Amino acid sequence: MSGSIHVTDETTQPRSWQRRPPYRNAAEGFAAMYTAQCTCGTVAFEVCSDPVDSKLCHCRTCQTLHGAPFQWAVIFHKQHVRFMRGIKDLRFFSAETGRREHTLPCKLSCSVCGSPIADEGRRMFLAFGPLFDFGMPTVVPPAFKPTCHIFYGARIIDMHDSLPKYLGHKGSSP
User: Fold this and answer.
1) What is the mean pLDDT of the chain?
2) Reported confidence tier of residue 27, pLDDT bands at 50, 70, 90
């Protein structure tokens, strides 16, 4: 049936993904700079570098996933991310296959509280900015500040800021 969701049995799903970044817990040479966690704290991860980029995405998928007009994606190389806890509590969803499975690219969320965690790509990890702990009062590091709006053509509200606004991905028609 087209559009149906297939649930993959965890006991039969290959687990080779757990031996690759960001799931591989390779402590050698990894010095955490920032930590993040889901709402309930079951799933937590850390990163050992500043992000490669940070964007505000207005695509329809992000709007529906987050129940908000846009989402804040902070992008890291996968080898710069490692999970501290909660790998067994991750829920995966592949929009390409329409299945709850770890097929890249896929979306990660906490199976306990339902918090969206990240979009995992083939080489990159797009974490959601609000999950990071920047202390109190919150001071967002400069490297985490968004550089642009993407998929602005699908926006629900106009954003009156000085950031570039692209109709598609960064670098496409502003």
Assistant:
1) 89
2) low
How is the chain split into domains, by residue range? Answer: 16-154
144: left (phi over 0), alpha (psi -120 to 50) or beta: alpha
Separation CA 101–CA 24 (nearest Å): 18
DSSP 53-108: EEEEE--HHHHHHHTSS-EEEEEEEGGGEEEEE-GGGEEEEBTTTTEES--SSEEE
What percent of the chain clears pLDDT 70, i.e. is strictly above it? 88
pTM of the model: 0.86
The CA-atom distances, in angstroms, between 123 and each of 16, 39, 80, 114, 138 are 16, 26, 11, 24, 29
Domain 16-154: CATH architecture, name and number where available: Alpha-Beta Complex (3.90)
